[in-house]
Design goal:
With 237 residues, the chain is an alpha/beta fold. It is built from eight helices and six strands, in the order H-E-H-E-H-E-E-H-H-E-H-H-E-H. Strands 2-1-3-4-5-6 form a six-stranded mixed sheet. Helix 1 crosses helix 3. The protein starts with 10 loop residues before the first helix and ends with a helix.
Length: 237
């Protein structure tokens, strides 16, 4: 049986084949401990059929052609632990290809491991301080407040990193910000307003809101959604 080489086909037909292989309804991108993690090997389709990413390893020409179809044709969904760098850690060109992106903002972005390290560092200091304290109830309240504020600031820093690269995505046509789980790490207070201020501080608020299909989802009512938009774009209320 004779073989037929894919590269012998016209480019238009190759792109049609790559579309069948790669384009799905949504691609959920999750974080990975593997330093070499890429969007292609970390992603999973929310649909029943996963992309046939093995095609990307055939050769450089096919990878370049297929990568364009993969990034432009799919709607990517960043999970709570995933950052934008999980989409393309070693290929900044992909910034200019992605057209549809959903980002979930969640307290789980601040991993439990990091939270335990913060708590462990505070515990060592608090053990020494407790020897000289008289009002232990007040001291415990102050410590809980300090820990809460520290974790909030750490989460805000991570969120700033997540939105900073959005300004470089020149081809974005659809951007969805999911704020349903936008709480502090302890789950006691909403952080929608704080997120809006983070976006404003990164100077990307007006660019994000200018995306053709920009939506804010998961807010607790219209008033919270409007407040978030006011915060991120610095519009007068």
């Amino acid at each position: 049986m004779s073989t037929f080489h894919l590269l012998n086909l016209p480019k238009e037909l190759r792109l049609d084949i790559f579309t069948i292989c790669f384009v799905r309804d949504n691609i959920l991108v999750s974080a990975s401990s593997d330093a070499k993690n890429t969007a292609e090997d970390s992603s999973q389709s929310i649909a029943s059929v996963k992309p046939y990413i093995g095609v990307l390893g055939v050769n450089r020409q096919i990878r370049d052609e297929a990568k364009t179809v993969y990034y432009r044709g799919n709607a990517f969904v960043l999970g709570p632990l995933a950052g934008i760098h999980h989409l393309f850690p070693s290929d900044r060109y992909a910034f200019s290809l992605i057209r549809s992106l959903t980002i979930h903002f969640s307290p789980r972005t601040l991993s439990q491991k990091v939270r335990e390290e913060v708590r462990h560092g505070y515990r060592q200091r608090w053990v020494e301080e407790s020897r000289y304290e008289e009002n232990t109830v007040q001291a415990c309240q102050n410590r809980a407040r300090l820990l809460h504020n520290t974790e909030r600031r750490m989460l805000e820093t991570i969120w700033k990193m997540r939105v900073l690269d959005l300004a470089a995505m020149m081809s974005l046509k659809s951007l969805y910000l999911d704020l349903e789980d936008c709480y502090c790490p302890t789950g006691c207070c909403r952080m929608v307003s704080a997120l809006g201020k983070c976006i404003l501080e990164m100077n990307v608020g007006h660019k994000l809101s200018a995306v053709k299909d920009f939506q804010v989802r998961g807010t607790l009512g219209l008033s919270e959604k409007l407040q978030f938009v006011y915060e991120m774009t610095d519009l007068p209320e």
